[in-house]
Design a protein that fits this description.
The structure holds two protein chains of two kinds.
Chain A (H helix, E strand, L loop, with lengths): L2 H19 L6 E2 L1 E2 L5 E7 L3 E2 L2 E5 L4 E7 L8 E4 L4 E4 L5 E6 L5 E7 L5 E7 L1
Parallel strand pairs in A: 1-5, 3-6, 5-11
Antiparallel strand pairs in A: 2-3, 3-4, 6-9, 7-8, 7-10, 10-11
Chain B lengths: L1 H10 L3 H6 L14 H27 L7 H4 L5 H34 L5 H21 L14 H25 L1 H8 L4 E6 L2 E6 L8 E4 L9 E6 L1 E4 L1 H4 L5 E3 L4 E2 L4 E2 L4 E5 L7 H13 L6 H29 L4 H15 L2 H21 L2 E3 L2 H7 L4 E5 H5 L5 E7 L5 H12 L5 H12 L7 E7 L3 E6 L2 E6 L1 H6 L8 H9 L3 E7 L2 E9 L6 H10 L3 E5 L4 H11 L3 E3 L7 H10 L4 E5 L5 H6 L2 E5 L12 E3 L5 H36 L3 H4 L5 H21 L9
Parallel strand pairs in B: 11-18, 11-20, 18-19, 20-21, 21-22
Antiparallel strand pairs in B: 1-2, 1-3, 3-9, 4-7, 4-9, 5-6, 5-8, 10-22, 12-17, 13-14, 14-15, 15-16, 16-17
Helix pairs in contact in B: 3-5, 3-7, 5-6, 5-7, 6-7, 6-12, 7-26, 8-13, 10-13, 11-12, 11-13, 12-24, 12-26, 13-24, 13-26, 14-24, 16-17, 24-26
The chains are: A alpha/beta, B alpha+beta.
């Protein structure tokens, strides 16, 4: 039994669990445009950047996705709570509109659920 | 289910935005290649680089195994150290050039506090490389010299195999979305438009509503419209799955993407390209392919914790092997941790459902079956009862003449001519069936005089100087026409679901003309097939019991719900559901909308290519009932395929990870090599994709 290796290993596990599963704060606030949509621009490259979007309840939301890589993994974005999806051709802007939402949080993911984003709806 | 349907309607207008972004054109790279092809080629280049470098790396890693090399690079020699240093540099080069995306992906994920497959591979590969580096430069920190071994082969071979796996996956994935590409490719890019009286070739984007377009045999119809002159037969199989060409005459609708076969015609454009039937179908299929099925929720939960979970398992494995494993502990612990990271395959798990769903729904679309969502597909597979509307679903939906029985001195042909002549002024649907039949036989109805419709009874008039009464039994009785027992003919016809009408000529019974809404050609075989698939078939209709029974008997249906008012159809469906059955309702989507919504799966039989049927979960573009069988077949096969994929991926990880952690070692001495793990990992996700592609071989047609 090597205490050093054991303790370092367990600490590392703790850090990993906290980092990936711990409570996450913040997120980028969507801006309201002239037509009343709350707009958020999301870069798609091995995940969504930003991946946490804060919006207000009761107002429609417009996402503008731009996929800047060609990997096959994130060629499609899915909003499971809305039965909505969009293909994201590399290098093209794709607009997805969502209806006004109630407070809470809604996920969006790639087709396989490996890349994830969250919409946080606040009052 | 219902709530989601309203959502669909709610979001319908949003499609416009997505359309604007150019959904109907194939995804193209700069050189006209699809992004998938580019990705495949780039991955294959990476694979060849990694594979080529792997050969010398393996040789130098195990010089003892190769005669000649053993003497050239003896263990512990200076030459071997230098050779290994060069291999280390080459391996680093491979990791950067061939495996760079793993590190970029890891970094992008880490920034968002998420982990994915890239994280596992990047961690595993870099652990092996760093260990080797330390072993090479600072062998003295290892407790014993034999531990100071290098694992550059792990670095390069794992990179090579994972990249190869991804390349093959991209290729196979491309095939799973082939169906949609085929649909998109149907759209011709130009059309012959009449401008200022001249015919000019115009690109699709410049065509406007109201333009007149000329189509010659062998050309594709560019866009939706109405025929204004000429006639032809058009192959609409690409949209409807129906292989027999459809006759088109003046006033008929034509659809973009269909193929003109025999004649030339001119049509007027009635729709913008983004509102065309083809664009609607493409959009619906895309939405459905991107939808999730309920079973996926469980998978989502697993995959959201999967990757960090595997990293934690690998660290735990390291600690346990280091503390309790055989010596040299460093080496075993490292092998176990790296192997665990590499064998775990979240991709296979995450991919199973979307791959099969994309292929299955695409397969449906190729056969004229539009499945709205993954949920519809999952329920369709569990169906127990199929409720079918009679009129327009089981039957043609419009009456046609079935029998002419001469009762006196007139022949069949004479009877037909007289009845058509007297009926030609009538607007009753039964009348048009008779007039149509006469025309079909080449008979020209003559002018009748004194035509008079007697509501609820029939018609009267004078044809060729003969006084004619044409109508039901009531009319004959009122006019005092002796029927002399001919009535039994009429009764037996009524028993067969037909509507018999008596023709009286100059006060004598001339004959009986029967009209019926005849059953579709394939109704009998479809219902037989549904029954043999273990489904219960129920017919629902507003018609009287007698007619309903007669039709039911012809097509082999035992359960009949007759005299059901349209507004009560939904109620009847609900009663069946209360018996605990999953019920599908098949109807024409207009009158049956409430029942379609009430049913677990609403199947709308399209008339032509009208796909704007919001109430349905599944739309059959062609009017053929065979689509019901195909829809259920494709649903069953797709769900089976999804479960196979999920099961395979789950079992793979559930068995692979513990073996990598070395659970078998205490009993059998088996410990996986990271190289085997890399091969298994690449193979597992490929298997899921290939399994999904098997769906494309599915045979949906029968008889």
């Amino acid at each position: 039994m090597n205490w050093f290796v054991t303790v370092v290993g367990l600490l590392l596990i703790g850090v990993i669990a906290w980092y990936f599963w711990g409570p996450k704060k913040g997120g980028s606030l969507a801006e309201t445009n002239a037509s009343g949509f709350q707009e958020a621009k999301i870069l798609v490259k091995n995940g969504y950047n930003p991946s946490r979007i804060v919006v207000q309840s009761g107002k429609p939301v417009r996402f503008e996705f731009t996929r800047i890589e060609t990997g096959a993994c994130d060629g499609m974005v899915i909003f499971p709570g809305f039965e909505k999806s969009a293909t994201l051709p590399a290098g093209e802007k794709v607009i997805v509109d969502l209806p006004p939402m109630k407070t809470g949080s809604y996920d969006f993911t790639c087709q396989m659920g490996m890349f994830r984003g969250k919409i946080i709806v606040k009052n | 289910m219902e709530a989601e349907k309203t959502q669909h309607m709610h979001e319908h207008h949003d499609h416009e935005h997505e359309m604007m972004t150019g959904h109907i054109k194939p995804e193209q790279g700069q050189q006209g290649e699809s992004t998938e092809e580019l990705e495949y080629r780039s991955l294959m280049k990476k694979w060849w680089l990694a594979a080529t470098v792997s050969v010398p790396v393996i040789l130098v890693s195990y010089p003892n195994l190769f005669p000649g090399l053993r003497e050239l690079l003896p263990m512990g020699s200076q030459q071997l150290w230098w050779a290994r240093l060069i291999m280390g540099i080459l391996a680093l080069f491979v990791v950067i050039r061939s495996g760079g995306q793993f590190f970029i992906g890891t970094w992008e994920g880490l920034k968002q506090r998420s982990a994915n497959m890239n994280t596992l591979i990047a961690t595993g590969v870099s652990a092996a490389w760093l260990y080797s580096l330390i072993a090479l430069f600072w062998p003295s920190i290892f407790p014993s010299p034999e531990m100071a071994d290098v694992y550059y082969d792990v670095t390069t071979v794992v990179t090579a195999l994972v990249v190869l796996g991804s390349a093959l996956e991209v290729k196979a994935k491309g095939r799973s979305s082939e169906a949609i590409n085929k649909l998109v490719a149907l759209q011709p890019q130009t059309a012959n438009v009449v401008r200022d009286g001249k015919e000019v070739k115009v690109p699709l984007e410049e065509i406007n509503i109201g333009d007149q377009i000329i189509v010659r045999p062998g050309e594709k119809v560019a866009i939706d419209g109405t025929v204004v002159s000429g006639s032809s037969a058009i192959d609409e199989s690409m949209l409807t799955g129906e292989s027999i060409p459809v006759e088109k005459n003046e006033g008929d609708e034509v659809f973009g993407g269909t193929l003109n076969k025999t004649g030339s015609f001119t049509f007027k454009v009635t729709k913008e390209q983004k509102d065309s039937a083809l664009a609607n179908i493409v959009e619906m299929v895309k939405q459905a392919q991107g939808s999730r099925i309920p079973v996926q929720k469980v998978v989502d939960q697993i995959s959201s914790i999967f990757t960090p979970g595997v990293i934690i398992a690998a660290i735990l494995g390291y600690i346990v092997w280091y503390d309790f494993g055989p010596q040299p502990g460093w080496v075993y612990a490292l092998i176990v941790a790296v192997t665990t990271l590499i064998i775990a395959c979240p991709c296979a798990l995450g991919m199973a459902t979307p791959m099969s769903l994309t292929t299955g729904i695409g397969k449906g679309a190729e056969n004229g079956i539009l499945i709205r969502s993954g949920e519809a597909l999952q329920i369709a597979q569990k169906l127990r009862t199929i409720v079918m509307d009679k009129t327009g679903t089981i039957t043609e939906g419009k009456p046609s003449l079935t029998d002419i029985v001469p009762l006196g001195k007139f022949t069949e042909e004479e009877l037909l001519l007289i009845s058509a002549s007297v009926e030609q002024g009538s607007e009753h649907p039964l009348a048009s069936a008779i007039v149509e039949k006469a025309k079909e036989k080449g008979l020209t109805p003559v002018k009748s005089e004194g035509f008079n419709a007697i509501p609820g009874h029939g018609v009267e008039g004078t044809v060729d100087g003969k006084m004619i009464y044409f109508g039901n039994l009531k009319l004959m009785k009122e006019k005092g026409i002796p029927l002399d027992g001919f009535n039994s003919y009429a009764a037996s016809m009524a028993d067969q679901g037909k509507t018999p009408m008596f023709l009286a000529i100059n006060g004598e019974a001339g004959g009986i003309v029967a009209v019926a809404d005849i059953v579709k050609k394939d109704s009998l075989s479809v219902i037989h097939e549904l029954k043999s698939m273990g489904l219960e078939v129920v017919m629902i209709t507003g018609d009287n019991e007698r007619t309903a029974r007669a039709i039911a008997k012809q097509v082999g249906i035992d359960q009949v719900l007759a005299e059901v008012l349209p507004q009560h159809k939904a109620e009847n469906v609900r009663r069946l559901q209360e018996e605990g059955k999953k019920v599908a309702m098949v109807g024409d989507g207009i009158n049956d909308a409430p029942a379609l919504t009430q049913a677990d799966v609403g199947i709308a039989i399209g008339t032509g290519t009208d796909v704007a049927i919001e109430a349905s979960d599944i739309t059959l573009i062609s009017g053929s009932l065979e689509g019901v069988v195909r829809a259920i077949r494709v649903s069953r096969a797709t769900m089976k395929n999804i479960y196979e994929g999920l099961f395979g991926a789950f079992i793979y990880n559930a068995i692979g990870i513990p073996i990598a952690l070395g659970v078998l070692y205490p009993f059998t001495g088996i410990l996986l090599s990271p190289l085997v793990a890399a091969a298994a990992m690449a193979f597992s996700s490929l298997t899921v994709v290939l399994n999904a592609n098997r769906l494309k071989q599915l045979k949906l047609k029968f008889n």
